[in-house]
Amino acid sequence: MNENRRTIRPSVWFPTILIALVLGLDLFASVKSAVAQDMPLQFKMTGQFLEPNKEEKPGGVNAFTVNVLNKTWIWDIESSHTLQGSMLGSTVLKQIYPPIMTFIGQKEITEALIDPWIAGRTYTLTGQLYVKKRMFRINTLEGPPQEAEGQGEGDAEAAPEPEAP
């Protein structure tokens, strides 16, 4: 019965494991090389924009001071990851010191990011991160839609009810 049983010889599985290991290390090295050469990394971050306050320091461990046009925010990052390679987003962000970044991008996006309305709301940003330049070029901005002026929650209660016929 054992005669029909096949065993995988080391000459077969060893090269397979070696190739997988080399490919994994090559992928890790390419992301690390991009950071060293300050080539942009495709990056995604989710977090909140908080008003900087002189009296207390908002934000946690992954908080960055960000400049958008002439507005300064504390960007408190909840999650981050590279969209290419296997390097963790938090590992990349730790290489940015001091924790200050400049956000750039299309006019519609950057102007939306200087509106005080965004404070305290969660947003997801995707784009290119330049680690050495401490710069993030935003391609997409996802978050809660801004309410139109005069359309707040309290306005619905103040509206008169239609009269019964």
Could you describe the 3D structure shown?
By secondary structure, the chain is of the alpha/beta class. It has a domain of 110 residues. Helices cover 27% and strands 31% of the residues. The protein is built from four helices and six strands, in the order H-E-E-E-H-E-H-E-E-H. The chain has a six-stranded mixed beta barrel. The longest helix has 27 residues. It is elongated and about 75 Å long.
Question: What topology emerges from the helices and strands here?
Answer:
Elements: H1 10-36, E1 41-50, E2 63-68, E3 71-82, H2 89-93, E4 100-105, H3 107-112, E5 122-130, E6 135-142, H4 153-158
Parallel strand pairs: 2-4, 4-6
Antiparallel strand pairs: 1-3, 1-5, 2-3, 5-6
Residues in β-strands, percent: 25-35%
What is the general shape? elongated
- The termini sit apart by 91 Å
Give the beta-strand count.
6
Task: Summarize, please.
The chain has a domain at 33-142.
Which key phrases capture this entry?
165 residues; alpha/beta; six-stranded mixed β-barrel; 6 strands; 31% strand; elongated
